[in-house]
Structure prediction request, 164 residues.
Amino acid sequence: MRLKRFLMASLLPVLLAAPAFANTCLRPEERQAMEARALRSYLMVTALNCQKQSNYNEFMRRYMRELNNADQVMDGYFRRAHGGAGRTRLDQYNTNLANDHSQDGTRAGGFFCRDADPLFQQVMALQPGQLAKFSAERNVISALDAPDCGAAAAPARAASTGRR
Prediction:
C-alpha cells in the first residue's frame, strides 16, 4: 500500500503539469510568429540606436500584413498560455525582447551600427513569408523559452544563447 501511495504521489505532479505544458508550448505557427516578432523588435532597436528610422519604416510598410498576422498569433498564444493575464504577459514579453536586443547591441559595440545597413538590405530582399526563417537562421534573440508542442524532448532555443 505504501508503494502505491508513493507512486501516486510521484506521478501527481506529472499529471498536473501535462495540461500546463499543453497550454504553454508553441505551435508551429506561433513559433514562426515569435521569430518574426523577434526580428521586428531587433530591427526597431537597430533603427533607434543607429538612426535608421527610414529603413525601419520601409520594412514595416513592406511586411505590414505578415507582421500584423504575427502580432495576432502572438496575442492568441499569450491568451492561451496565460488566460486573463495574457495581454499583460505579452506586453512584458515585448518589453523584455526589446531590452534583450538593446543589450545585444551594447555588447556588439561599434559593429552593431556598422552592420545595420547590410542587415536592412538583406531583410528587404526577402520574399513575404520569409521573416521567421531569416530570424531563426540569424539566431535573433527571441526571449521566449517555450518548447514546441509535441516536441517536449527538444528544447526551444534559449534566449541566453540566441544571438544574431
